[in-house]
Design brief:
By secondary structure, the chain is of the alpha/beta class. It has helices at 15-26, 33-41, 45-67, 85-94, 104-114, 126-141, 155-165; strands at 4-8, 30-32, 74-76, 95-102, 146-150. Helix 1 packs across helix 7 and helix 2 packs across helix 3 (45-67). The longest helix is centred in the N-terminal third of the chain and has 23 residues, at 45-67. Bound molecules: shikimate-3-phosphate (S3P).
Length: 170
């Protein structure tokens, strides 16, 4: 059966917005791992990081992936989901992974406005921290089935590009 279109990529790459737009246009259900975690554990992400720490947060992410059934939906993921090998096994079971490879400067401009919701960037020199994370993760994101290079600030363009790629323009 046709599985999820799974969006992976850095914080600020527009995964949630693109997923919502694709869902609206295709009628496919949208699932978001961050939202599921927040719902299941009853607290916002920064608080979950504070209470459990990053490692336990990652284990909860894996549990969320494991609980999903393969279905024709859109799955938006937290930026760090790619860090665990077993998450790749789960994502391969669930569908097709698509890396939204957005230019670094576009990401930084977007995060400038929303970094307070990102616990990993709650440090003084957050841009340095961001560059470090990006450098460490680039190789892992490239394990995705499809790599989509994006240069625009606009999440609508990302959504269009994903749908074009998957033959689902509508
Ligand atoms: C994280 C990204 C966040 C969230 C958490 C950790 C990361 O999701 O899961 O703050 O490690 O990159 P977004 O990618 O939706 O910001």
């Amino acid at each position: 059966m046709d599985g999820y279109w799974i969006l992976v990529g850095m914080m600020g790459s527009g995964k949630s917005t693109a997923a919502r737009l694709i869902g609206e246009r295709t009628g496919r259900p949208v699932v978001d791992t961050d939202s599921l975690l927040t719902y299941r554990l009853g607290r916002p992400i920064p608080e979950l990081f504070r209470i459990y720490g990053e490692q336990a947060f990652r284990d909860h992410e894996t549990a969320v992936l494991r609980s999903l059934e393969r279905q024709p939906g859109i799955l938006s993921t937290g930026g760090g989901i790619v860090l665990k090998d077993e998450n790749w096994d789960e994502m391969r079971r669930l569908g097709t992974t698509i890396f939204l490879n957005v230019d670094r400067d576009v990401l930084v401009a977007r995060l400038e406005r929303s970094k307070r919701r990102r616990p990993l960037l709650e440090v003084e020199n957050w841009e340095d921290r961001f560059d470090e994370i990006l450098l460490n993760r680039m190789e892992v994101y490239r394990k995705a089935d499809i790599i989509l290079d994006l240069h625009s600030e606009d999440a609508t363009e990302s959504a269009n590009a994903v749908m074009k790629l998957l033959g689902a323009e509508g």
